[in-house]
């Protein structure tokens, strides 16, 4: 395995921690800055919105530069943002640190996906992307629980100091192990020429599948604590351990999904998205049963995150002229899916449909992703068939006679 992939995974681990750790430390941060929970929530919302901005605008701005240099400077930005958060004297400075760290999120994963794919052979590209995203899944399984414990024991600032240190380790790895020729830019192209990639309907279809496919899982996951306690009957203390099981499913699905996507990209996505829709329906129907709930949690994580390498690879293939910009846009699409899923789940709960309703909504959104992907596949196949040379009607091949 190229050591550059490990460096990218460490960077992904740190970024994943930055995104998710605040959820476990929000009460301590709110109390320290004397703000109400709604204001504290902007430390999450502001981060997510900044990810979308950075994934699109920052990636477009730096796309003409050497990708290794860009990754290095993005990690420097990440370190600065988290150090500001750790030292923040006021809530406003803390929010600024979160925004600075978030700006590198989308670009790092977008550009990192292209670099990771360039480190390996053609038939291993989705698997290489999966290795980079393993850092993100590990942040959920290991980083968030232990980071929360550290923050509760030694103060929330200690967790952000630890994340800053992880960023330094990733920075050293990127400097040492990413080969400069492999990370070369595609060429000095104008922003206008880069944006032409979005004229492709298949690029937009791929981005839409990402929004719906990932949004379906995240819609069910956003309110999972309420489902586990209010419907299944688990205690609040059991929720963190159940989320670790979900996280294990993320890791397994990410690795297996990446390997499968290398063998057959669209078929893997169809199977995984269809399976996720079925799992969500089964989860909604059996949420009162603790055993079935545990099984559903693991499978939801496996099938849901198993789609990530394939979704990332598909948009890169459909945007060969500007894969970096499209890759960054797909990271933004993941975050839009998060927002869509959470919003729909919140609407169903507000409508009085109960705490299994976000799971039903997630199943419906995922099913829409399956239909959209199926349509995109049929369209692509029809277009390829129409573009291939057709034999002239009424003619037959001339036999070749041996001497």
How would you describe this structure to a colleague?
The chain is an all-alpha fold and about 400 residues long. It folds into 2 domains: about 1-180, MFS general substrate transporter like domains (Growth Hormone, Chain: A, Up-down Bundle), CATH 1.20.1250.20; about 200-385, Growth Hormone, Chain: A. The protein has helices at about 5-35, 35-60, 65-85, 90-120, 125-155, 155-175, 190-195, 200-220, 225-230, 240-265, 265-285, 290-305, 310-320, 325-350, 355-385. α1 (about 5-35) packs antiparallel against α6 (about 155-175), α3 (about 65-85) packs antiparallel against α6 (about 155-175) and α11 runs antiparallel to α13 (about 310-320). The longest helix is centred in the first third of the chain and has 31 residues, at about 5-35. It starts with a helix and ends in a 16-residue tail after the last helix. The mean pLDDT is about 85.
């Amino acid at each position: 395995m190229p050591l550059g992939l490990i460096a990218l995974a460490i960077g992904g681990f740190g970024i994943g921690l930055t995104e998710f750790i605040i959820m476990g430390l929000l009460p301590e941060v709110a109390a320290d800055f004397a703000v109400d929970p709604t204001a504290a929530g902007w430390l999450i919302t502001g981060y997510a919105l900044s990810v979308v901005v950075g994934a699109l605008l920052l990636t477009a701005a730096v796309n003409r530069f050497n990708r290794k240099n860009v990754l290095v400077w993005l990690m420097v930005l990440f370190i600065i943002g988290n150090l500001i958060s750790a030292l923040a004297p006021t809530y406003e400075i803390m929010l600024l640190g979160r925004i600075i760290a978030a700006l590198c999120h989308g670009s790092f994963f977008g550009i990192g996906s292209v670099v990771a794919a360039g480190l390996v052979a053609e038939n291993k590209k989705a698997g290489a992307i999966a290795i980079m995203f393993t850092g993100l899944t590990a942040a959920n399984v290991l980083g968030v629980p232990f980071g929360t414990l550290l923050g509760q024991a030694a103060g929330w600032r200690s967790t952000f100091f630890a994340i800053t240190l992880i960023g330094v380790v990733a920075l050293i790895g990127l400097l040492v192990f990413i080969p400069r020729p492999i990370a070369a830019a595609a060429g000095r192209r104008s922003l206008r020429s880069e944006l032409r990639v979005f004229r492709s309907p298949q690029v937009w279809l791929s981005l839409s599948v990402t929004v719906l496919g990932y949004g379906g899982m995240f819609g069910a996951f956003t309110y999972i604590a309420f489902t586990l306690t209010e419907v299944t009957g688990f205690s609040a203390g059991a929720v963190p351990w159940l989320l670790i099981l979900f996280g294990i499913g993320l890791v397994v699905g990410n690795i297996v999904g990446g390997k499968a996507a290398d063998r057959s990209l669209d078929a893997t996505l169809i199977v995984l998205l269809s399976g996720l829709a079925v799992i969500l329906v089964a989860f909604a129907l059996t949420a009162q049963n603790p055993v079935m709930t545990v099984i559903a949690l693991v499978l939801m994580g496996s099938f849901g995150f198993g789609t990530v390498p394939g979704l990332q690879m598909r948009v890169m293939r459909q945007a060969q002229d500007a894969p970096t910009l499209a890759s960054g846009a797909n990271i933004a699409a993941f975050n839009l899916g998060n927002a869509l899923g959470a919003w729909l789940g919140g609407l169903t709960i507000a409508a009085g449909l109960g705490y299994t309703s976000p799971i039903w909504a997630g199943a419906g959104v995922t099913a829409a992703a399956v239909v959209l992907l199926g349509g995109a596949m049929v369209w692509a196949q029809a277009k390829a068939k129409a573009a291939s040379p057709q034999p002239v009607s009424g003619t037959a091949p001339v036999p070749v006679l041996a001497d």
